[in-house]
Write a structure and sequence with these properties.
This protein is an alpha/beta fold. The protein contains 13 helices and 13 strands. Helix 11 runs parallel beside helix 13.
């Protein structure tokens, strides 16, 4: 493997989507940002869109702005459907947070499978997903059946299949593992769940905007995801949910809010759910966050998921190769080595991962830490260059070689 910076520069020169970096606000060019899988960079178009929304739409139009804002959740959802998730218009809507959406869809799925007493998830699913499912199981007197997952290799479809029987109502898993980046086999797992009559609910937080999501190919029933990672919608931006069209008229979510009611401005007595995906809305949507999600989705659509996935695979392959050459066994790979089984982040394992993470930040590289003992590097393909990977991994090598991390304590901070 060519370890020179010139080689990284040559890869950037050949990058068909490299020009999208210029569409982001990057005030500190010396900073290496390896955390786009937690919070994406600010698109320049978003900054201008929000300024206009504040000054003109809110400031000047006032309440008249709702003539435009009222359809924002659906228009953004349709863009995500067509360009990011490759499903049908009317199957995706922007709404609430990932956790709230997961609760709504999980509860609706359980109600649609009366008499069944088991929810299946895995022990490496994202914590909020496990907590929501645990709460639903406790409130309804159900069993939460937890499948053991290898932290590095990801969900094993055979283990999931072995946990399934005719008492399972819902299978809820992450498509891309938050810790390792391992991609779950959505097609195999959904097929196995449907074989026993269960519904599936997929968390797409680390998938949307970084890899192709086979919702249509798998026949997946439900999904949720956030917009502030690879979709670059900003901190606290609203999430999205997906409901397969043929299920929309039969599922009824548990939070009956006025935005989910048919003919909401009739202000009628009693709750009658909308006949579309709108029935999974609740209250007044966040307009500024919705515009940010819309602009982030537009950039993603322009680049194309296939190009983004290909570059993400190339970036992570490159990081893995540099780590192997420069650090050897001092950092163990904690992600699948095959790029087809890995999302757009790569994780390394070391007992000193936390102090290494802190030393890297002091050296101008921003990764993040995940328990146990894992250094996670997110390489968002819209704006991360190969020279960024080269520079960031070189600084990581220097931090380890010089022992710069030894001056940092082992006590974790509140935010890791």
């Amino acid at each position: 493997m060519d370890l020179s910076r010139q080689y990284a520069e040559s890869l950037d020169a050949q990058d068909p989507i490299g020009h999208f970096r210029a569409q982001f606000y990057i005030p500190d060019t010396a900073l290496v940002y390896f955390d786009g899988n937690s919070l994406g960079r600010l698109p320049l178009a978003t900054r201008e869109r929000l300024r206009d929304a504040i000054d003109r739409e809110w400031g000047h139009d006032l309440i008249r702005g709702w003539d435009t804002w009222i359809d924002l959740a659906r228009s953004t959802g349709d863009l995500l459907a067509a360009s990011v998730l490759h499903v049908l218009p009317g199957e995706v809507v922007l709404s609430d947070s990932t956790s709230v959406n997961l609760y709504k869809l999980a509860a609706a799925a359980l109600d649609a499978r009366p008499g069944r007493g088991v929810i299946v998830t895995d022990d490496d699913n994202f914590p909020t997903d496990r907590y929501v499912l645990e709460g639903l199981a406790a409130a309804r007197g159900l069993e939460l059946r937890v499948v053991t997952t290898d932290l590095d290799a990801g969900v094993d479809p055979q283990r999931v299949a072995a946990a399934l029987d005719d008492d399972v109502a819902l299978v809820c898993l992450s498509h891309v593992a938050y810790r390792s980046g391992a991609i779950a086999d959505m097609v195999a797992i959904t097929t196995a769940a449907h074989r026993v009559g269960a519904l599936t609910l997929w968390d797409l937080c680390h998938s949307a905007g970084s890899v192709r999501v086979p919702l249509r190919e798998s026949g997946a029933d439900l999904a949720v995801g956030c917009t502030y990672k690879y979709l670059n919608a900003g901190p606290g931006a609203p999430a999205f949910l997906y409901v397969r069209r043929d299920l929309q008229a039969t599922l009824r979510q548990p939070i009956w809010g006025w935005f989910g009611r048919r003919d909401q401005f009739a202000m009628g007595a009693g709750y009658e759910p909308a006949g579309s995906v709108d029935r999974f809305l609740v209250g007044t949507p966040p307009v500024l966050g919705g515009y940010a999600a819309l602009e982030g989705a537009r950039i993603t659509a322009a680049a194309g998921i296939d190009a983004l996935a290909a570059k993400g695979a190339a970036l992570t392959d490159y990081a893995i190769g540099l780590a192997a050459a420069w650090l050897g066994d001092r950092l163990a790979l904690a992600s699948p080595r095959e790029s087809a089984r890995r999302g757009s982040h790569v994780t390394f394992r070391a007992p000193e991962a936390w102090p290494i993470c802190q030393a890297l930040k002091a050296a101008g590289v921003i990764p993040d830490f995940r328990t146990p003992e894992r250094l996670r590097i997110g390489l968002a393909p819209l704006y991360t260059r190969f020279v960024d990977v080269h520079e960031g991994m070189a600084r990581l090598r220097d931090v380890v070689d010089t022992g710069a991390y030894l001056s940092y304590g082992a006590e974790l901070g509140r935010v890791t």
